[in-house]
Amino acid sequence: MRPRDIVDLLLLGALWGASFLFMRLGAQEFGPVALAFLRVAGASAMLLPWLLWRGEGAALARAWRPVALVGLVNSSGPFLLFGVASLALSAGLMAIFNATAPLWAAFIGWLVWRERLAGLRVLGLAVGLVGVVGLSWGKADFRAGASGISPALGMAACVGATLLYGLGANLARTRLQGVPPMAVAAGSQLGAALTLLVPAWIYWPAVMPSAAAWGAVALLALACTGLAYVLYFRLIAHVGATRAISVTFLIPAFAMAWGWLVLGELPTAVMLSGCAVVLLGTALATGLLRWPLGSRP
Fold this sequence. Notes:
This protein is mostly helical.
């Protein structure tokens, strides 16, 4: 990687790590539905002019159906579920669950699309599952907190969100080949916004959220979603998808750091060890880590 690519990778990890902080700050006042809608609506408002400036609007028009489906599966659904989880879980814990998305992508690719999984990738799925169980063990309290959401429900929402991410990755790979990445990014956010428009109107907060909550949502939409997509696809263009996806390993660290600095959420030993196990499983399942190093895939 060139120095610029390393900077992009670190900035992307910081932005996506901060998204869990901003969800925590915004969900209490907006609620999960309005928060998810504002996130994708703001991101689409940022990305669509960029798409048109690049002259790729026609590509989106040709592929709008699969792009809209990916927006539903890969944005509106996960963002809504993580909004629910943010009412009960810390930013760092949500980010660790988020790191399992590549595991589910590999599993769904094998289950639905019959992709071959080598022995180490199967081992990675098992290791990642052990990490998730370890994180959940002893924390799955079914008693609802002040928000009405229990930690157990929050963890289930995280798992549901990452399952959707895994499905979305496979849909994008199989149904959007040849579609420009910016058309996928902008169109999927627009499609997600349209699917959430009516639910957001129904569940709009009765009390006007504070300026701080609006600021958190603006940063979540424009920086952590819109700008992050631009950085991500630029990384894919410069260093390839395999290296770009290594940002997965940076997000939990940044999320725990942001949660500690802003909200005082100290990571526990269980969280840190569970994070290590999950990331090890992810590295094996995605083929980023092979044994012996450099051997055949």
